[in-house]
Design brief:
5-stranded mixed β-sheet, Glutaredoxin, two-stranded antiparallel ribbon, 5 helices, alpha/beta
């Protein structure tokens, strides 16, 4: 695996194209002119990732009111994402990064310590990208509790 530099505040967000729930391909540049909340998570239907998705769902209308779109990315397949999205009534697209290419571009696919073993996995991270495609906020090693509210607060202060 190539080690890529982590995306930082002030950088142009790396563009990507990924398959999305609801059909089709989503490309980051299609959201130029809007803010984007790009959040990376490990796996559908796990407790932390479900709580995070539900928190973003519950604050979705407030997030949209700031002019932002939410996009969730994990390594799960589109089929698994569709079931997860329907089960929890998520109003935003989930994108499938099966080969971890986008996770590597953003520096979130890392070696982690799980129960004393080193494994490669997604470090829960969120990026806020402005209307010009510039990263304005980076949240790494996210703790789920209160995270969606912190993202909303950051969006509100960026006016």
């Amino acid at each position: 695996m190539d080690t890529l530099t982590e995306v930082a505040v002030g950088q142009v967000a790396p563009d990507f194209s990924l398959p999305a729930t609801g059909g089709g391909i989503i490309t980051l540049t299609q959201y130029r002119g809007k803010k984007v909340v790009l959040y990376f998570f490990s796996k559908d239907n796990t407790s932390g990732c479900t709580k995070e998705a539900v928190d973003f769902r519950d604050l979705y209308q407030d997030i949209v009111a700031t002019g932002a779109q939410v996009l969730g990315i994990s390594r799960d397949s589109i089929e698994v994402h569709e079931k997860f999205r329907i089960k929890y009534e998520l109003p935003f697209p989930l994108l499938s990064d099966v080969d971890t290419h986008v996770g590597q571009l953003y520096g979130v696919f890392k070696e982690k310590n799980m129960y004393g073993k080193k494994v490669l996995g997604v470090e829960r991270s969120t990026f806020i990208i402005n209307e010009e495609g510039i990263v304005t906020h980076v949240f790494r090693k996210v703790k789920v509790a209160g995270h969606a509210a912190a993202v909303l607060s950051a969006l509100k202060t960026d006016k």
